[in-house]
Amino acid sequence: MGSSALYHLARRGADVVGVEQFEPGHVRGSSHGHSRVFRTTYDDPLYVELARESLGMWRDLETEAEVDLLELCGLLIFAGRDNDRFARTLRMLAEAGLPHDLLAGPDVSQRFPSFRLTETQHAFFARENGFLRADRVLETLRNRAGTHGAVRRDGCRVESIEKLDSGLRVTTDQGTIDTARVIITAGAWLDRLAGDLGWDLEVTREEKIYLPVGDPTRVTSDVFPCFCEYDTSNYGFPTLDGRTIKVAADHTGRRVDPDAVDRDVTAEGVRRLYDWVERWQPGLVGADGRGEVCLYTNTPDHDFLIGPHPSDDRLVLGGGFSGHGFKFSILVGDILADLVLDGHTTRRIIRFAVDRFL
After folding, report:
1. Separation of alpha carbons 174 and 177, rounded Å
2. Beta partners for 124?
3. N or C: where does the chain have the smaller number of CB atoms within 10 Å of the terminal CB?
4. C-alpha 315: how far from its chain's center?
5. What is the largest distance, in Å, between two alpha-carbon atoms of the chain?
């Protein structure tokens, strides 16, 4: 979100400095790695609206930077026939006019040969979904921000932010920066810099597993979509190397201190997700996978935090993206730029008010 805000502010002519406590592309937060899911298939009309706007903005950035960032290979969602979330999402797709195909469980294998679902399940496939090349996205945002005149200070940790009569003073471990306005997008460290708003942010350690594919022709984008089982909230999608798929169990991690995270993934964690894939896609992958860890910064209601500080609108906050924010980052950065440069935004962000937990 910080890289996106830096890009949008610089593109709109602001004199802007981006401060990052680690190195570019670091693995300690929520946005590293090759890929993140992009989807418009929410059961909430607000997120559908924001995702659809984000889709267009990703395409605009691709055109500007002349780089491929978003792969729409589609999303297959499957569940038991009594799953309420499945029914709500299906209704939302119809109301929003999003193209989708409803499939009986046994018929899914005719469309996607790797799957073997049962008569007690059903599924739908929605084309306006896929994955973003996450590391390429971050590199592109940083590069384009620099092209438009932004300055970056990497490996620079913010220690405090204090009010001045004429603006704000940001104190870092490398000196101070006096500025008119500040945006904080500190991810799992957000509470450390803006802890006076009654947030109960829960930082959790989540594992992403890469499982090897025996036959790479089975996971090409024309025959293998992103996929999610609503009965478990496990999900997966093709990777860029053509030799693995990426799978994860959503919102199952334990609470952690972001400065003291165990980065080793256990064999048990790999096996658990292998067993899940093997159940619905037998013979697709091998069990000798590898994993990596990322952090979710969760709000109590899993809605985002976006807006000015209630006691000082010179300080704008963005965070609490609860494990589903990356797809919106191109839009969130623009919203943050709106709030800084214009004092308001036309996007509907009232639900994301930063003081709603007071």
Report:
1. 10
2. 77, 102
3. C
4. 23
5. 68
The HSE-up count of residue 338 (CA atoms within 13 Å, CB side) is: 15
Whole-number pLDDT of residue 234: 97
CB 208 within 8 A of CB 246: yes
**pLDDT for the residue numbered 31:** 87
> What integer pLDDT is reported at residue 238 of this predicted model?
87
**Which of helix, strand or coil describes residue 11?**
helix
CATH superfamily of 75-127+202-298: D-Amino Acid Oxidase, subunit A, domain 2 (3.30.9.10)
**Nearest-10 Cα torsion for 185, 188, 189, 191:** 90
Contact indicator for 100, 143 with CB cutoff of 8 Å: no
pLDDT of the residue at 18 = 98
| Angle of the 2-11 helix axis to the 329-341 helix axis, nearest 10 | 50
Query: 86 to each of 109, 173, 233, how far by Cα in Å?
Result: 19, 49, 11
3-state helix, strand, coil split of the chain in percent (to 5) is 30, 30, 40
Whether 98 and 262 have beta carbons less than 8 Å apart is answered as no
Rg (CA), the chain: 21
DSSP string, 221-232: TTT--EEEETTT
Domain boundaries, the chain: 2-64+134-201+301-352, 75-127+202-298
Superfamily of domain 2-64+134-201+301-352: FAD/NAD(P)-binding domain (3.50.50.60)
Decide: residue 13, CB within 10 A, 0-12 exposed, 13-18 middle, 19+ buried.
exposed
Letter for the amino acid at 135? D
Gap between the Cα atoms of 54 and 51, Å rounded: 5
CB 255 within 8 A of CB 261: no
Angle 45-65/84-96 helices, nearest 10 degrees? 60
Handedness of CA 269, 295, 245, 51 (dihedral sign): positive
Query: Which pair of structure tokens corresponds to residue 349?
Result: 């962000």
E-assigned strand segments in 136-201? 151-154, 158-164, 167-172, 175-179, 182-184
Q: Which residues of the chain have pLDDT under 50?
A: none
pTM of the predicted protein model: 0.96
Nearest to 180 by CA among 316, 310, 311: 316
